[in-house]
Amino acid sequence: MEEIAKALVAPGKGIWAADASPKTIIKRFKDVGIDADETTNTRFRKVLFDTEGLENYISGVILYEETLKNEILRNILVSKSILRGVKVDKGAIDLENFPGEKISEGLDGLRERLTEYKSLGAQFTKWRAVITIGKDMPSDVCIGLNVESLARFTALSQEIGLVPIVEPEVLMDGKHDIVRSEEVTKKTLKTLFGELKEHRVNLHGMLLKPNFVHHGKDCPKKVSDEEIAQKTLEVLKATVPNEVPGIVFLSGGDSSIEATKHVNRMNEIGGVPWQIAFSFERALEGPAMEVWQCKDENTKKAQDELLKRAKMNSLARTGGYNEEMENE
């Protein structure tokens, strides 16, 4: 497990989160003008998985369960020596008696599902918890229940021999400023690592997938990339044990370029014990989806867009990215 965890955050590489649910991915297709059905996602995944040279920048791909079970798609990744992961939570539902807050489902029967996923060649897993900032939110109950689920998922994954990617996402939605994001992210991560310790997990055999510390989408006071990078690193230094091999960020609604800039700046600053990498979904595959438009003649264009974003984020792993490279 520890070797897989290290391989996922190998220098110059990161993780592609290709794990959107069918409902979510159909909405994404419609947002870019694609009239999608249940076969569209399989076609899109095959186009992108076939991208030549993808393995130079992408260490692993997080798959939705249906994609993991698709032997053709799975074998493309195997042929490129790209590690295969799977999203194992069943999504976030309303938390009873706490309006506006969510709890992720999926612990029932998880041990059996993990055993099946491993038999299909999965090497790592991911569980996403959702924390919302708002009036009187998040509650201690919401944070507590979600981190307990994350800890149980982590322990169960490691029991089966799978590397867990632990994703406590403090949402960017809302009017909160960066100071509030900092407070909530710090509290969430501190509570999480306390719970992981209680569950006796192996910190060397897991990865953390957090949000950037960031002003809310509707906050009138926007802050600089520099402040986002600095505050994010401050929170991580205060909460994440040195034993964790890597931190792979979610993009959380930032544009492709903004997300890359944040990772780049944190690696420029450096001075941390973990690998700082990426685990993006829309920020990696979004531009490719826009140009593909479900047309065979756009296959190469879509692959080029994915490869470009993967390469830009690879450069950000060393602090070697700048925005001018986008036009080269």
TrEMBL record:
GO terms for biological process: glycolytic process. The keyword Lyase applies. One of its GO terms (molecular function) is fructose-bisphosphate aldolase activity. InterPro entries: Aldolase_TIM, FBA_I. The keyword Lyase applies. Belongs to the class I fructose-bisphosphate aldolase family. Pathway: Carbohydrate degradation; glycolysis; D-glyceraldehyde 3-phosphate and glycerone phosphate from D-glucose: step 4/4. Its EC number is 4.1.2.13. Keywords: Glycolysis, Lyase. It is an enzyme of class 4 (lyase). This is fructose-bisphosphate aldolase. Pfam families: Glycolytic (PF00274).
